[in-house]
Amino acid sequence: MIGNGAAACFPFFSMELKENSAVLFQGDSITDCGRDRNQEAPNAGLGGGYAARVAGDLLDARPALGLRFYNRGISGHRVVDLYARWRVDAVNLRPDVISILIGVNDTWHRFNRDNGVEVPRYAQVYRMLLDYTRECLPEARLVLMEPFVLPVGAVEPPWEDEMRQRRDAVRRIAEDYGAVFVPLQKPFEDAARRGGGPAHWLSDGVHPTPAGHALIAREWLRATGL
Question: Is 207 assigned a catalytic role?
C-alpha cells in the first residue's frame, strides 16, 4: 500500500492530453447528472452536467486528438460505494485521467438516513481507492475535486463543520498523492455573493444548477490547465 508516502513515489503529473487519451469522471449525482447508463461508448450519454461541459470544451479545442470521455457517476453514492465498484467502473476502462468528486452523501446520509461515512473512515477509504488505482493504473493522472455545499435547501447547520473536515481531507489526500486539486467551495461562495444567492448556483444546497455546473467545469479546466 502507498498510504501517506504516495507523494514521494508519485509526484505531480502534468495534465497534457495525448492522442486517444481517456478521461473518466467519477462520483455521485453531481457527476451522474442524468447520464445514459445504457451508453458505454466514450463521448456518449455524458449527462447534462459539468462532465459533459468539460468534455465538450476539450473535444472542441482538440478535435484531432481523438479524446475519449466517460461518465460513471452514480446518484446517491458515498466513498464506500465508489470503492465497491472501482474495478468495473474505473480500472477496467484504463483511463489516462481519473477525476473524482465524492463526499457530500457521506455527510447527507448521516443526517437523513444514519448511514453516512464518518470523516476519518471517509479519508481512509479514499486513500484505499487511490492505492488500488496506483497498483492497477500507475500512470493514470488524478484530479480530486473538493466537495461543496451552500446554506440553502437540504443543507442544515450541522453539516458545516463536517463538510469542512471532508474538504480538508481531500486537499491533504491530493497533496499526498500528487493529484490535481480542484477547489470548489470558495468559488461557489464567491459566486453566491456576487449574484443570485446560493440557490442560483446549487438548487438545494448540494445539486448544481446549469450555472453551477458551468462554474465547476470552469474551475476544473482552470485547475488542470487544460
Answer: yes
